[in-house]
Design a protein that fits this description.
The complex is a heterodimer of chains A (325) and B (400).
Chain A lengths: L1 E4 H15 L3 E5 L15 H5 L4 E3 L4 H14 L2 E5 L10 H7 L3 H4 L10 E6 L14 H5 L5 E3 L4 H13 L4 E6 L7 E4 L12 E4 L4 E5 L3 H14 L4 E5 L2 E3 L3 H11 L2 E8 L4 H13 L8 E5 L9 H4 L3 H12 L2
Parallel strand pairs in A: 2-3, 2-4, 4-5, 5-7, 6-7, 10-11, 10-13, 13-14
Antiparallel strand pairs in A: 1-8, 6-12, 9-11
Helix pairs in contact in A: 1-7, 3-4, 8-12, 9-10
Chain B lengths: L1 H8 L25 E2 L19 H26 L13 H9 L6 E3 L5 H7 L3 H9 L32 H14 L6 E6 L6 H13 L3 E7 L2 E2 L2 E2 L10 H6 L3 E6 L3 H18 L3 E6 L18 H8 L3 H12 L4 H22 L20 H16 L11
Parallel strand pairs in B: 1-7, 2-3, 3-4, 4-8, 7-8
Antiparallel strand pairs in B: 5-6
The chains are: A alpha/beta (325), B alpha/beta (400).
């Protein structure tokens, strides 16, 4: 075991993946010699050469398209989009191309090796264009898998699993936690299963579910509620597409209450999908309406970021209101 | 390391150390790119033009592919008019540009097309049955009935499945070829697109990436005069598409796209450059889309019959035939016989493959992922119950 922050865990996973398989290739803006603007690809070019870890021109659609081509050829590209806010020029390549590659060809071709990594989320004074959480756009696209780690341990295990999974994957990294989250991480190669949630903490009165950086706020809110005698069950979804409905439904059947939380705006956010699925599955077990604690339906603000974010106090208030409904 | 040092020392950002001391602009017309022509319409060669080394067997195969595609296109448009196909899209007028480029490549080279390159696929050996299966969406369709007619693809022939969004294959071709290079294959990627698609962002992204990252791609821009109804003068300014290749830093050439020998000669040279240097090349083939954009289009609304007739005189098939006959490699009798045989083969095969069933209902949910995920299986199971309740309403699944 070693103590790593989330960024070091990502770097370590990439290092292991590149050492393990010569067809793993890291590419993106500034990922070469510089090691990426957050340093997620530090020293990889030095270790594995310019051909396997390189800078690309500044073109997100080009990066995605190039990585798709590499994957179709049998390579295992791990492409970085510098900020999730800049993924939209690549939207067509990801949604119309990567996601449909296997299906449209009748499995003649696929982009099994493709992984797109991108830092997402607020809390770093990044304003409109360095803060967004665009995961729900991609969760609406059959053919993609969407993965979001919340700890260094998860980041390494999920990223290794994502790189080796035979489907195109969007891997959203919570940049607020890049250096803030520290934890014990095995130095060896390991994978965490995709499509499976983690019950982070067991409880009886209410289920709280989220993913990525939002788990941090849920943990704090659960502690505040604990002091009031409310026992919270915490679930970290880890994979949003396909998401682990079974684990969440089992939890809600037990607690009878559910709060879903994400940083992204409420309307059309992934919480809506979770609420709909859980009320279908658990209608007769529910003691209160399922509650969403989310960002507002605004572009991501700058000076009012703290007010916008669905922080631990907002989650705490929602817990109390739901329990006393 | 040398490249890095060069960048670090380049403090003036001076690209070629060529300085002037008065403002002067350069117009596109000052740097015109010539058009390579070898073969004249009557089958003789232009003065001073040398034909490429092209053996009789290959020349005959190319020509046979050209006339096969002409026949296939005619018959499929007719079949679409009869309601036997939902959609079709012809290569008519561009057979030399498409097939000439494919013929200069090796079977191991990946072809990534736009959608009008059925000639390249036929050249690689796609059978009439395979064409029909795809267009009819039957149980033998390699694409499992998921895409509209003409969206062919086959791994066995290294022909990437066609996708409708324009130009998306261009950056993909750069990535594919980069992978070929890393694997040390003596192979490249042949990437086709139209001059209209060259306005898409993916064209610029893809050419730039291929040039900067050194990917062995032969880009072939089929400049056929129209993007549906939009003529080239409303599509781009400047000296066509070839000039853009130069701008992105790759060797570029413009050829008469109705001249099989010119297309073939240029592509043979292009492949040599691409394989030897691992750098991309751009070929712009100047041609004309003699047919409609697709069976959903009627060109009489945007261009004149006179214009079409003028181009019909430049027909690449006639020109190639004239040359072959002059070489004594082909005859009018053989031509007539071949056309008849192809017509019969296409119609007989259409009739036969029409009788096949659609793909199994299960193919609705396979290949979304490598395995069917639980949530999708649950949706499928619930669909099955519904279909069994109303079998007559869903003919493709017949209550499966």
């Amino acid at each position: 075991m070693a103590t790593m922050n989330l960024l070091q865990a990502v770097n370590n996973a990439l290092d292991i993946a590149m050492a393990d398989n010569r067809r793993v290739i890291c590419l993106g803006e500034d990922v070469g010699k510089f090691g990426g603007v957050f340093r997620a690809t530090s020293h990889l070019q030095e270790k594995y050469g310019r051909e396997r870890c390189f800078n690309t021109p500044l073109t997100e659609q080009g990066i995605a398209g190039f990585a798709i081509g590499l994957a179709a050829q049998g390579s295992v590209p791990v492409a970085e989009i510098q900020f999730a806010d800049y993924i939209f020029p690549a939207f067509d390549q990801l949604v119309n191309e990567a996601a449909k590659f296997r299906y449209r060809s009748g499995n003649e071709f696929n982009v099994a090796g493709l992984t797109i990594r991108t830092p997402y989320g607020g809390g770093i004074a990044g304003g409109l264009y360095h803060s967004q959480s665009p995961e729900s756009y991609f969760c609406h696209t059959p053919g993609l898998k969407v993965v979001v780690p919340s700890t260094p341990y998860q980041a390494k295990g999920l990223l290794l699993a994502a790189i080796r999974d035979p489907n195109p994957i969007l891997f959203f990294e919570p940049k607020r936690l890049y250096r803030a989250a520290q934890g014990e991480v095995p130095e060896d190669d390991y994978e965490l299963p995709l499509g499976r949630a983690e019950v982070v903490r067991e409880g009886d009165d209410i289920t709280l579910v989220a993913w990525g950086a939002q788990m941090d706020y849920l943990r704090q809110a659960a502690e505040l509620a604990e002091a009031d005698g409310i026992s919270c069950e915490l679930i970290d979804l880890r994979t949003l597409l396909p998401w682990d409905e079974e684990t969440l439904a089992a939890s809600v059947s037990k607690t009878g209450r559910l709060i879903v939380s994400h940083e992204a705006p409420r309307t059309g956010g992934f919480a809506g999908e979770i609420c709909a699925a859980i009320q279908e599955r658990c209608f007769l077990s529910l003691e209160a309406p399922i509650c969403r604690v989310t960002g507002l339906d605004t572009p991501f603000p700058l000076v009012h970021e703290k007010e916008y974010l669905p922080d631990q106090l907002k989650v705490y208030e929602a817990i109390k209101a739901t329990v006393s409904y | 390391m040398n490249a890095n040092n060069a960048i670090n020392n380049n403090i003036s950002n001076d690209l070629n150390n060529n300085k002037v001391h008065k403002p002067g602009f350069i117009a596109a017309k000052q740097l015109p790119i010539p058009t390579l022509e070898i073969l004249k319409a009557d089958g003789t060669l232009h003065a001073g033009a040398a034909p490429p080394a092209l053996e009789q067997a290959l020349a005959r195969k190319i020509y046979q592919t050209m006339i096969y595609i002409r026949v296939l296109d005619e018959r499929m448009v007719a079949a679409q008019r009869q309601g036997r196909l939902s959609f079709y899209l012809t290569c008519t007028g561009e057979e030399a540009a498409v097939i000439g480029a494919a013929a200069a490549c090796e079977p191991a080279d990946m072809i990534m097309g736009q959608y009008r390159e059925q000639g390249a696929l036929r050249f690689r050996g796609f059978t009439t049955e395979q064409f029909m299966n795809q267009m009819l969406s039957n149980e033998k369709d390699l694409g499992k009935g998921r895409q509209m007619p003409i969206h062919y693809g086959t791994r066995a022939l290294n022909y990437m499945t066609i996708s409708s969004p324009l130009a998306t294959q261009i950056p993909q071709a750069a990535g594919y070829a980069y992978g070929q290079k890393l694997d040390g294959e003596q192979a490249c990627t042949l990437c086709y697109f139209g001059e209209g698609a060259a306005s898409e962002g993916d064209f610029h992204a893809g050419l730039n990436m291929a040039a900067v990252l050194k990917a062995p791609v032969i880009f072939v821009c089929r400049n056929n005069g129209y993007a549906i109804s939009t003529p080239t003068e409303e599509q781009f300014a400047g000296d066509g598409i070839a000039s853009r290749g130069v701008g992105y830093g790759m060797q570029s050439i413009r050829v008469d796209g109705n001249d099989l020998l010119a297309v073939y000669a240029a592509t043979v040279e292009a492949r040599k450059i691409v394989i030897e240097t691992n750098e991309p090349v751009l070929i712009e083939t100047m041609s004309y889309r003699l047919g409609a954009h697709s069976t959903s289009d009627d060109p009489s609304g945007y261009r004149s019959r006179e214009e079409e007739d003028k181009w019909r005189e430049q027909d690449p098939i006639e020109r190639m035939k004239n040359w072959l006959i002059k070489q004594q490699w082909w005859s009018e009798e053989e031509d007539t016989r071949s056309l008849e045989a192809y017509r019969k083969e296409v119609l007989d095969t259409l009739k036969r493959q029409e009788k096949l069933s659609p793909p199994a209902l299960e193919e609705l949910i396979t290949d979304v992922y490598d395995q069917v995920p639980a949530h999708l299986q649950a949706q499928y199971d619930s669909l099955g119950e519904h279909l069994r309740k109303y079998p007559d309403h869903y003919p493709a699944s017949r209550g499966a």
